[in-house]
Amino acid sequence: MIKDPIQPGFNLILDPWILVQRCDGTSAEVSIKELFEHGYDIKRLAHEDPLIDTSVLAILVAVFNRAILHDFDKQWEEDDSFTPPEKDAAIKTWIQKNFQPNTANLEPILDYLESADVKNRFDLFHPEHPFMQVANLHTSKNTRSEVSRIIFDSESDHFSIRADKGKKTLSFAEAARYLIATHAYDYSGIKSGAVGDPRIKGGKGYPIGTGWYGSTGKVILHGKNIIETLLLNTPYDELFEVSDDADGYSTLTALADQPVWERTPDTAAQREDSRETVLPTGSSDILTWQSRRIRLFPEGKAVTGVLVSNGDKVSDKFVEAKNLFDPWTGYRYSKNQSSKTEDVWMPQQHNAERTLWKGIDALLTLSSGSAGVKENIRPRTVTNLGRYFPQDIHLTVQLVGVVYGPQNSVIEAVIDEHLPLELALLTENHPKIRAAIIENSSKTVNAAVQLGRFAGHILVAAGKEYEFQPQPTENALYLLETEFRNWLSTVTHHMRPEEVKALWHQQAQKFFTQEAQRMLAAAPPKAVLGRLEDENGIQHLVTAATAHRSYLKSLRETFPLAYPDIRKENTNG
Predict the structure, then answer these.
(1) Rg (CA), the chain
(2) pLDDT, tens digit, for every residue of 7-28?
(3) 24 phi and psi angles, rounded to 5 deg
(4) DSSP string of 506-528?
(5) How far is the C-alpha of 73 from the C-alpha of 93, rounded, in Å?
(6) Backbone angles phi, psi at 107, to 5 degrees
(7) Distance (Å, rounded) from C-alpha 152 to C-alpha 211?
């Protein structure tokens, strides 16, 4: 039997490779086509690693966006009276229609995937343009690495979730997932020098930095199903922008922003090899950014080898806010990198320490709107929410990032935090509710820090020198994360700010009171007896009990609305 020439190997549009969880709780492995055919019945991506989830989702969003653009462009050509939804009201109507489960909504995406020009580019082993690879990529000595090279945790024999055999071969489906994630998150360091890359020296490709996603903190918005998620993560302000050429002919500007499968196949060299860095053309380009040149080597029905070389280097410094291409990333204004003639923004990364508590602050703090003040910029998809989506829907905000080791040469940790929120709270409306949430988060961190100080004072009572104890602080914040998420999911824009504060004050005060009581009960006998301390010539007894009373006083000051008398005074006031 002659195999269909459109799929000489493993076609990602037709063959299953994406791991998903259905809305009924069951799991499956699906192709891109199957995902869009059954999108309203699929809850989310469900790979073993959030980095794979994020990088695969980016491919799906780029497919979704390009299909929409091509469909509107086609309608525009066929009907002169057709107006693409560049106006807010029309975009809202279109989003509302697509939020309703109807397979007819997905026909433009399926038509796009059926296009031979597109389908042909998704073959993992095409002889001329394999998906996200360079067909003839090779070194001067024709070297290659084991497949463990693209499995972030398996290059070390001492730290791997995969068995030894699984480190030597990958199924085609696994190889596709790790290929995409490597472009996004690969660590920095010396790479194999590919023949044809003018940057190589002595057969080596010297560091150009991590994959683009690795230098950013991704903010992903999740709906009830994968179609809602795709709708939420689409940059509408860019997608439906219309421009006029010299002849007055209107076009969708974003059509020129091509993902990797629509543009000329890569070679071993950087796309703009005369420049140090490559400037993205827009969101479709940056979401499918080729930070590496890669070639998979199949043997039978498995991939047994891989070659990874340097790809396109993108600068992490962006001049002018209009060049902030990544719609899933916030940008911070860099005063140090800016000059009198140009302003510079850099991608904002998530903080690995206390991600939830710091993340909620960064997510809900909006621009002050002060004229002439250069401020941090939230992800474009987040700023789009208030313009296009219903205010009362609930979503989950996922914060995804990476912590690299020395010289960014190894992945040390993955940041993966989920925050359930009502959409309205992410918009510019309801500032007092947002302020109440941020205040609650801040007060919680403060109470946890005071708990560490309480532990330090117990040391004093036991006859030792005072030393802040970080463990009680970090343990408390860790244990409270689930409670805070659950509470956060109940907050709506219909609530009064004092009600938002009071509900969390009561939960947090109860938790910290119990933690302090537990620490008091565990205090050593010496701390219970205490010791005399001299303060300004006056001696006073320091015991675990006096330290406990001091901590309870600080709790009363931190969470006043948890105490009936103070809450009554506040209400009467």
Answers:
(1) 27
(2) 348 999 999 999 999 999 999 9
(3) -85, 5
(4) HHHHHHHHHHHHHHHHT--HHHH
(5) 18
(6) -60, -40
(7) 13
